[in-house]
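sorry for the late reply, my laptop died twice this morning and i had to redo everyting from scratch. anyway the thing you sent over, i finally got around to it. pasting the sequence first so we're on the same page, its 264 residues, then the predicted structure underneath. double check i copied it right bc i was rushing
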Amino acid sequence: MELNQLLEVAIKASLSAGDKIMHIYDNEDFEVDFKSDDSPLTKADIASHNEIMSFLKETDIPVLSEEGKELAYEERKNWDTLWIVDPIDGTKEFIKKNGEFTVNIALVKDQSPVLGVIYVPALRELYFSTAETGAYKCTDISGYDTVEEWKSASAKLPRKKNGEAYTVVASRSHLSPETKDFIDALKEKHGRVETISKGSSLKLCMVAEGEADCYPRFAPTMEWDTAAGQAICEHAGFTVIDYTTKEKMKYNRENLLNNWFLVN
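ok and here's the structure:
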C-alpha cells in the first residue's frame, strides 16, 4: 500500500476508535485498573486498541501497541516498518474527564516516523501528516472518506503564532524539577516566557501548530507516547531531539522507554 493509502487507513482507524472511546466516556461508569508499572487502564483503552487493530490488520504491517501483547526485541528487531499505536494517550486525562486525551497512530520506517495521526475525540480535532504531504489539522472531520478530502478541510501546519512571548508547553500531569529549571533558564534568555499546560500528545501538537515555541520533556515517556507526535512535528518543520544522543529520536529500540527530549 502507498503512503497515502496507509494514511487513510490510519485516519479512519483513529476516528472509529475515538467513537468507541467517547461512547464509554459519555455514557458509562468505568472502572480503573492498574498495570504492572502502575499506569492506569480502562475498558476504553482496550476498546480503542481492538478497533484500531481491526483496521491496521489489512495493511499486513506489524503493530506495536501499548495495549497489545508484549513483544520481545528479538521478535521486533528485524522489522524495518511497523505501526506504533497508543489507543489512548493520556488515560489519566480521560479518567479526570478533562478532554485532553488522544488516539495516536504512527508508521515508522527504518526507525523514523514517516506518518502520524493524532485524533482528539473529545474535541473532534484531527492532526495528520506524512513525509510527502506535510502536516495538517482538521476541525471539520465529518463526511469525508479520502485523504484529499480531509486535506481540503484542513489547515496546513504550522500556522502563524499568536503573541510575541516565548511559549513553552509542559505536561499537565508530569512537570518535573528539571523542566522548571529549563523554563527558568529560558526566562533569562528570552525575558517574557509563557507556559501552557496540556495533557497527552497535545503538547507536541501545540508546537506543530505554532502555538508553542518548544516542549521540553524531562520525564519518562514511551515510544507510543511520542511517535505520532514526532511525525507531525517533523513534517511541520520542527525537530524532536533525544537529549542523550543529540539526534532525532529513533523508534523500535530494544528499550521502549524514551530518553528525555526537546521539541522545537
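The chain has a mean pLDDT of 93.
thats about all i looked at so far, will dig more tmrw
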